[in-house]
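Is fe (ii) ion placement plausible here? Inputs below.
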Amino acid sequence: MAIVIAPRPAGTQSQGVEPGYDVTRLRWPGQALQRRPATRSELTGPPPGAVLRRLPQVRGDLAGHGARRALGQLIHIRARVVDEDGAPVRGAAVEIWHCNAAGKYIHPSDSHDAPADPNFYGAARMVADDRGVIELRTIKPGAYPVPDTERWWRPPHVHFSVWGRVWLSRLVTQMFFPGEPLNELDPILNAVREPQARGRCIARLAPDGPENALVYDYQLVVRGREGTPALP
Ligand SMILES: [Fe+2]
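Reply from A.M.:
I modeled the complex. Tokens:
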């Protein structure tokens, strides 16, 4: 079996290595990509549920309640995982992580002097339902400065890692918030040259939802021409 998968159109994906942000150099191939046909290795994946047997689900609520409520603006993220035909990817394993409202990650490499929030851990792992949807209750992440750069502040964003049905549908990306002035200045978001593709990285403020939270809709297209750009 030899099926050739069309390459992602140029401009719809990050160029991969950002000058001044050295970590991106370590995350992307250092040599030109070689084209080769996709085989069973790419067109198959773990059987349904297998990923989550090894990596169990972790709550869909990062905000907490009452005295253990995390500081910040309460939000709900409704993310829908679809394939290139718009069909829901039921059973996709979706991992999410983001910093707290002050812009601090719980990670030993985070040297930002913003305070940690004892009620906020910042990571979840969920499985998409029959509509391909995962829903996360959390707080809006803050902006943070990138170390060793000249006043580069990351806009508020949420990291996503998606395991679809086959290995080719693996997607690691970032979700941004609409109307943030830092979006236009962010080298990672703007490394996606095509405006429409860049727009697919930005969530949409929904008109509905609970009274005490803002709801953001976001679509993750795991592959294809309208695919969500992969962002390190
Ligand atoms: Fe980040």
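Short version: DSSP finds five helices and ten strands in the chain.
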